[in-house]
Amino acid sequence: MESVKNNQIVEGKGQAEKFDWKAFLAKTEVSVFIALVVLAIALTIASPYFMTTKNIFNVLKQISIIGILAVGQGLIIMTSGIDLSVGSAIGINACLAAIMTSMGMPWVVVLVLTLMIGGLIGCLNGLIITKLNINPFIVTLGMMSVLRGSTLLITDGLPVDFNSPLCYLGSGYVGPIPVSVIIMFIVVVAGFLFSNNTLTGRNIYAIGNNERSAVMSGINTEKTKRLAYTILGFLSALSGIILAGNLNNADPSFGQGYEMDVIAAVVIGGVSLAGGEGSILGVIIGAALMGILRNGFVLLRISAYWQVVTIGLVIIAAVSIDGLRRKKKA
C-alpha cells in the first residue's frame, strides 16, 4: 500500500511539473521574440558591425521613444481603442517646453508643466470618446490635426532652440547607456507591473474582451479608458522633451509619422486590435524588432524605400496572424 502511495505521489509531481511547451510557444510575444533572435543572428552573420556595443546601444536609443509611447498605446489598444494624435502631441509638447525654457522658466517647472499639458491632452481625448460615445479613431484623428495646427501657430512654423538641463534626458549618458534607454526600461517595467499586478490594469483587459460584461461586473469603464488615454498623453509629453533634448531644439514637425510606428510596434508585439489581448513585454519586443530591421537595412546599405515596404508587410502579417488566431478561437 505504501509503495502504491509513493508511486502516486511521484506521478502526481511529474504531472504538476510538466510544462506545456505548445501553449508557451503559441503565445504571440514568444513568437515575436524568436523572430527577433533569428533576425539578430542573421544580421550578426551578414554584418560585422551589428553585434557591437556601440551599435546595440545605438539601436536601443533609436527605439527608446517608440518603446515609451508603445506602452501607452498598447494599454489603449487593449481597451479596443486607438490614439492617432500621439505624434502631434509629441510636437506640441516639445515646442511648448522649448518656448517655456526660452522664457526663463526653471527646468523643473518646465518639466512639470509639460507633463501636465500632455496628460491633459490625453485626458481630453478620453473625455470626448467616453462622454460623447464617439469612435476613438475619429476623435484622435481630429485631435491630430488640431495639435499639429496649434504647434504651427505658436511657433510660426519655425524651430525653437532648447537649451536646458532637460536636454540630458535626450542626449545624456550614464556610462555607455543613453539616458533615454534607461527611461524606456523604467516605463516598460512600470507598464508591465501596472497591467499585470493592479486591478485597474486587469480591468483594461476585461474592457477589451467584453465591455458590456465589464460594465455589468461593476467596472467603471469610462474612468479606466480615460486613464489609458491620459497615460499616453503623459508619455507623449515625456517623449517630446526627450526628442527636443536630443537635438537641442524643438521643430513643429516633431513626431510626424510616429503614430504609425507606435501602432506598428504594438500590433507586431502581439496586442490585438480587437482589444483584450497582448502584453507590455510583447510591445517592447515589437519595437525592438522594428528597430533592428531598420538598423539592418542601414548596415547592409539597402534602400530606405525597402524599409517602408518591409515594415508594412510585417504589420500586415501580424494583423493577419491575429485575425486567424481569433477566428480559430471563435
How would you characterize the overall build of this protein?
This protein has 330 residues and is mainly alpha-helical. It has a single domain (54-329), classed as ABC transporter involved in vitamin B12 uptake, BtuC (Orthogonal Bundle). Helix content is 77%, strand content 2%. It is built from 15 helices and four strands. A hairpin with a 2-residue loop joins strand 2 and strand 3 (177-178). The protein is globular and about 60 Å long.
Give the topology.
Elements: H1 2-17, H2 21-26, H3 28-46, H4 53-78, H5 86-102, H6 107-131, H7 136-155, E1 160-161, H8 168-171, E2 173-174, E3 177-178, H9 179-197, H10 199-209, H11 211-216, H12 221-247, E4 249-250, H13 258-268, H14 280-299, H15 304-329
Antiparallel strand pairs: 1-4, 2-3
Instruction: Summarize the helix and strand pattern as letters.
Output: HHHHHHHEHEEHHHHEHHH
N→C terminal distance: 47 Å
Might you state the CATH topology name? ABC transporter involved in vitamin B12 uptake, BtuC
Please report the number of helical segments. 15
As a percent range, the share of helical residues equals over 70%
Percentage of residues in strands: under 5%
Low-pLDDT runs of 5+ residues are none
- The whole-angstrom Rg is 22 Å
How many structural units, i.e. domains? 1
Total count of strands: 4
CATH class bucket:
Mainly Alpha
Shape, per Cα inertia axes: globular
- Largest beta sheet: what is the strand line-up? 1-4
Largest sheet: 2 strands, antiparallel
Q: What is the average per-residue confidence, as pLDDT, rounded to a whole number?
A: 89
Q: Given the helix and strand composition, which structural class is it?
A: mainly alpha
CATH architecture: Orthogonal Bundle
